[in-house]
Fold:
Amino acid sequence: MKKRWYDYLWIFSLAYLILGFFNILFAWLGLLCFFIPLMISIAGGTKGYCNRYCGRGQLFGLLGGRFGLSRKKDIPKWMKSKGFRYGFLIFFFVMFFQMLWITCLVFAGTRELNEVVTLLWTLKLPWDWAYHGTLFHPGVAQFAFGFYSVMLTSTVLGLITMVLFKPRSWCVYCPMGTMTQLICKAKNRTGSVAAKET
Amino acid sequence: MEAKTRTRRSAFVDTDACVACGCCVKVCPLNAIAVFRGVAARVDPKRCVGCGRCAKECPASVIEIREVQA
Ligand code: SF4
Ligand code: SF4
Ligand code: SF4
Structure:
């Protein structure tokens, strides 16, 4: 199969993770991985982002596939159940809003900037070496630390399930994947009924 | 009269459990599978030869290769 330009977007995902070690403010770029899939699903009614452009999925596919870092076993049933997928989406959202709330507090000046990256919502890793002060408000940096925590956490979870199960196991419970699929389902409800009848 | 039926294999997607990630689409050598409207993957039975690549790749393991009467 011919490789296309979008088959190399994993390079961006990798670069993103690495840049976060040098300057946390690059974490803001991660917003692209939130807004692009949402826009594609809301405007186009497809999971075009997952299906084509998602660099993170490609990265797992590459590491687990080409580099053989995956056992390639079936994912446990509960992990692909709707309950777990939707539950994880809700959990992710709650943690995300909590992160936004902390950012707001820093912006408001009622809380000091905390230069840590929180892994798996509990492990606080000191990350001050990636912050050199900015022209911006400390709240800008707080958001970057929070957002990078989200991205790093999902990468670590994705890597664990990549090793244990199939390379792209993360895609089964990825909140962005689940959310865009739900949007497509809602958007195409009438369409899919018509399609079933044919 | 007993007509000789040729059995061939084809992929079947459990659409309810499909997460529409599109991993199957990327590996199908015959373009026989596609994600339909971001909801679930769909197999084109005319093109699919049941090679099983998609089933191997599917992270949710929701593709089954079955024999069908041709
Ligand atoms: S499910 Fe998540 S990781 Fe997988 S392709 Fe979609 S957005 Fe990327
Ligand atoms: S079984 Fe082979 S030919 Fe059929 S959809 Fe899967 S990859 Fe394509
Ligand atoms: S790889 Fe599996 S879960 Fe993903 S779209 Fe294909 S059938 Fe659905």
Observations:
- The longest strand of chain B covers residues 7-13.
- Residues B 11, 28, 30, 32-33, 43, 48-54 surround iron/sulfur cluster (ligand 2) (CB under 6 Å).
- Chain B is about 15% helix and 30% strand.
- Chain B touches chain A through 21 residues (CB under 8 Å).
